[in-house]
## 1
Amino acid sequence: MEELIKKLRLESIEGDIFSRRGTSTVVTFEANKLKSIESSESSGIGLRVLVGNKIGYASQYGIYEPDWLLEKAKATANIETNMQLPSDICIKEDYDDALDSVSIEDLTKLGKDIIDKILSSYPDVICNVEIGKDKGESLIVNTKGIDCSRSRASLTVAVHVNRIKGTDMLDVYEETVVKRFDNLDTDILISKIFYALESSKNIVKPSKSKLPVVFTPKAVYVLLLPLMSALSGKILLMGASPLQDKVGKKFFDEKFTLIDDPTNPEGLSMTSFDDEGTLTKVLPLVDSGIVGEFYFDLHTASLLGREPNGHGFRGGLGQPSPGLTNLIINPGDTGIRDIISSFDEVLVVDQMMGVGQGNILSGEFSVNIHLGFLYRKGEVLGRVKDSMLAGNAYNALGNIAGLSSEREWIGGSLYSPYICIPELTVVSKE
Amino acid sequence: MEEIKEVFLRLSKEKGIRYGELRLEESEVTSISFRGKELEELSVSKSKGGNIRILGRHGWGFVSFNEVNPKSIKDYFEQAYSASNLILGEDLDIEHSGPVVDRVIIPMKKDFREVPLEEKKRLLGEYNNIMLTFSPKIQSTQVRYNDRFTRKYFINTEGVDVVQERGDIAGVLVAIAKEGDLVEQYHYSTGGIGGFQVIEGLYNEALHTAEMAVKLLSAPVVKGGEYTVVLDPRLAGVFIHEAFGHLSEADHVYENEKLKELMVIGKRFGPDFLNVVDDPTYPDLRGSYRYDDEGVLARKTYLIKDGILAGRLHSRETARKMGEQITGNARAINYRFQPIVRMSNTYIEPGSYSFEELISDIKYGIYAVGAYGGQTSMEMFTFSAQEGYIIENGKIGDMVRDVVLTGNVFVTLQNVEGIGNDLKFSQGGGCGKGGQSPLPVSTGSPHIRIRNVVVGGR
């Protein structure tokens, strides 16, 4: 890498180098049995150059040919920019080595224990379990003295339970991601699965097509996707963000506060610098209903004439683009049981199909209720299926009936309460 | 390469393994995109990697890597071998296909590796300009393009030694229209394996994309309910992929006794005139290939014949377990993944009706056009259209937007009422399963008509 930096300096070209290296181990149980043990090693490098005021980019996985990278990066330099590379920051973020000692045998035992527990209560179900341990290192170096690295490790437990009765199929998916083995609580995950299996014994229909709907933390993404997109610097640059002229104005329910917090130690994406070497910032995206900040990478910020805010992230070895870290939604002050009990009839949605398959920018959503439960006066009646739930995410978050005091981490990147919307439309098969 | 193969085969023999595979892959990708008037990306990348998969007595050991040399192969072999031996339980066996040595090169009419970057950029810029300048209501655009040349080597312990080369292109045009606070978008996606010409000459498509984005601004949101629907070939292709294709993948079925009972060969799933096929040997489609990623020769499989479940898609393992014929449908998106059962080119065979005949006796229904995508849970599935039109008394009427449809595999296929005579394939599709996305697949269908389909809406 130093060699490449030297070559760049020799030709008086500014640029940055981003590299990734990772290892992972995955044990997979299929239909209650251990089926495969998988491990992987990967490494790659991406070179961005600024030739004059033009960006060029080349990357390589599994090969490292400095001359090829430089030649191709120069040859692709076509994108005009005013961005300035950051300078003189040196940060090393070490990972927690607590997961290093976890062996393949530990992972297979963990999976077997989960399956045994589920089968001892529900012998008629089929469990598919995937447990993966990941370790990765990213490095960002540039010609202006940025030299930062970050290492991360995580453990993911994903459980899928399938139950078939006649032609009725039930699939429950639960996942938990932790940074430390001793933070893993599979009992919570199992109790959620039991609750879904128990509550799905009857198939029911709502008594009317417009009713209050509670989104579990897992389901909240359907409401957040339009907003996450609308606050991206790229969408702002296109003039396609419905929120572009709403900054500083109250557009959402005042109970709704959404923050992107790269400093949250529980979040998987905790980091003090982004993938361009810019220092990250906590961003109030929505503050008590008021539209806060957009998020940018360096190039997008420069095109918009904005200050960068440390949110340039890369997927794999792709070029940086505006990205989010740990999304945190403020809780409410009522317990979820009390919120559910406060309605004569309420639908609780946990899993959906078709999320994101439509015009995300407009906020419209129309999704199949893959796993949802109907409650009457706090008592669960059964599962709602063969039904579509439709609404508009902006309207929904503009009028919130309640947020729960409980919160859950979803995939290590979203910390959310249950969110109750007073009225949405459900269409069921007659 | 020869030395690496030799090390792999020698170690396999020494250890006396039952079955093992070595896959190596080299690829080179060029990506270009525009966002609004800005060129957003122009980049190239190159990749090299591989994997070793070894069948132990009770399960698989798999290792993927980027470091490809004779010494590293030895280490990775040991790793995969010891992982395969850690699995205990029921015996696992696979279907064998016999030795074959082959080299498959899919020819490119106009090799995209020889097209200068400047020319690629210019062509895409032209599409972008057509959309940008279509109307003042066009707020912005996106054009995304990537070409990928891949060379895959496959070696196994039963004498398969195959090299396959192909060049795959995927492209998307997106137009975004805005009026007041209302933002609508429309896209056109395409691709192909035959060379750069598949992305040339899309001027009308660019124009249509911009025109539709603007039209959507004045279309109302569809009213939710149950409708008789007519699907255009693009959406009908996604429909059959989601509604039945995934359920035909034997890895969902082979270990699930109850699902096996529901999916027994010979069971009726649709009307007599419904025929559904998966065919990787169909020429020149993105889902086409000669050997799958287990080195098995690809073949055409009828999933539904005359309305009756006729076959399903298999890997070596699922075919063996179910005692059915191997089909060559084990695919991996790249060397980092194990092959799993996937579709290739999945389509509904054409029937006899013209489009006019299909809609002529519909009193009130929806004509759903184009595809955003779809998803399935096996029993239930969704698929979303890019635009819809009200059908009233056999005539196509006003446009509606946000048309998302849902169905149930045990009901919806039986409700197919008519199949058109105008089979068309879509080339823009990428399929996701088990964390592997996007896998190049094609879907195809004529226009089809289905009754009692639930459409979501406010």
## 2
Amino acid sequence: MTLNRRAFIGTGAAVAATLSAPMVMGAAHGKPRVVVVGGGAGGATVARYIAKDSKGEIDVTLIEPTRKYYTCFFSNLYIGGFRQLSSIGHTYGTLAAEYGVNVVHDWAVGIDRDAKTVSLAGGAVLPYDRLVLSPGIDFIPGGVNGWDVSSQNKMPHAYKAGSQTELLKAQLESMPQGGTYAMVAPPNPFRCPPGPYERVSMVAHYLKVNNPTAKILIADPKPKFSKQALFQEAWGTHYDGMIEWIGPDFGGDNVTVNADAMTLDIDGEETKVDVCNVIPAMKAGRICELAGVTEGNWAPVGGHTMQSRIDENIHVLGDSCSQGDMPKSGFSANSQAKVAAMAIRGALTGSKVFPAKFSNTCWSLLETDDGIKVGATYEATDEKIAKVAGFISKTGEDAALRKATYEESVGWYAGMTADMFG
Amino acid sequence: MFREMVRYFMAIGVVIGALAVPVMADHIGDAEKGAKIFKKCASCHRVGEGATHRVGPHLNGIFGRPAGGAGDGFRYSKGMIRAGNDGLIWELDKLEAYLENPKALVSGTRMSFRGLKSHQDRRDVLAFLRQYSDNPADIPEASPTAAPPEVVLSPETLALVGDPEYGEYLANECTSCHQRDGGDAGIPSITQWPTEDFVIALHAYKVKIRVHPVMQMMAGRLTDEEIAALAAYFKDLE
């Protein structure tokens, strides 16, 4: 059985990538088993690192519903016309073929923590010794008055990349001349703190060229936001007069939308809009709730190993976990995944465990060749993941530095996706 | 090993030592002696009235000039342009670090010069070049902010042999940005460097002689053992 499986995985990428769940179950025999739910920056990275570094001693199964994964990072650049959608799409063939990860394209729908099993929508039940949950985010029902998930085809969130991003871009491109693009920004904490504001910059870039009399309206429940001085400087420099940001002082926290009428009501004042990009309040991916490892909206973890505070056999990575000082970003999830991979290997095979270190950097594009970044390093304490040191781009930087920063982000994308998908 | 230790010490320790004591502009060094030492540089660099670019850029106004900023179409290396974009300005301490070991400060520089190992020689040459720079009026007082924190690297630290296994774990943090296969678009390659160059470069970020903010932050919390371990790991990465 084991021999067959080894040979099987060694030969065919495409076949291995579409392994059906029952075959996976049958194969996992004798070796420690790790099941990973979610194939993004956290899940793909942890699967790759465990498979790579355990050299076949640990059986790794990755559960991810989509066959082609579109990264949220750089999806704003697609909206701005700086990337093709295909350039941010990735598949799992290398993880399966070169690293021996069992990739199962299905939804995880239940977790039995006593039996240590994951059940899939297709009916399979997978046993685990360690479970990693890295499902990203879900939206809090009722987070924005008048909006629910059924409204997303009229008022897209585009905060999970793929068809939603395509829809938002299509809506942007079909705006009438002089029309209004509205964004309802989310409250803290949320995935990718600079994301909404980079998106506004990319939308403005598109409109400046194609629809220069159009307006952008942002209703924001937060009094301040990530890289605010840098974004607002750029909006003044590049897109003067196009963007209006309405914070809570002016009712940005009192919003109602109507997807059928395409209206946005801010503090009692109704505006007819042409695009309404609603980014609702967020919580941990639903599977974390189903597993019973959440407290409030998020799943608390300890920083040394990324283990759930509620169940030591479960690790939670990335956007879904609450860990302390790290922002919810792909970079953070990737960083956390490496710490978790080391801890899991240590627990299951006795391999050496080094002290946890974390880092994060978020680049944002403001306009052609005008990139900025913010980042920090972190360490694990018993209480949380704690910030050690950080930096941020400065206002008034010269064009050459901004161009270099943008080029750096493009290099990072290549490095990051290679680190995730092999 | 001893040679490596000495060179390493000079790259970091001497520069810091020089900055620990405030020096008046007039006392950078002996400009007359510097003029003689500059003959080593003159096959590639010109300085003075009417000086033009040769193999290297002219050095008029070098103090306070951004790296890669001579203008007039001089073709710099990718590494020098990157250093300039990162914010490297030719202040006294940076010039001295560069003269001591060009590649420790700017990876990939085309200046194929072994460096001036004598602290006094460097100061003398810089005193000579200083005559051809109008600004800033008073160099040490005008640019004290670049002074790195005082760090003393002991010979024991410098003799460390890195543990590649530990380096492989630590490298996980590097490969979120730097490509494992050595690709260098946008972000420089860090694979297959000579150990000494790698160690010196990371220490130069750690004490903020090199200017890139991300790398200053990342290197800032690496111990000497960790830097040695990373150097050992990346050296052999295919």
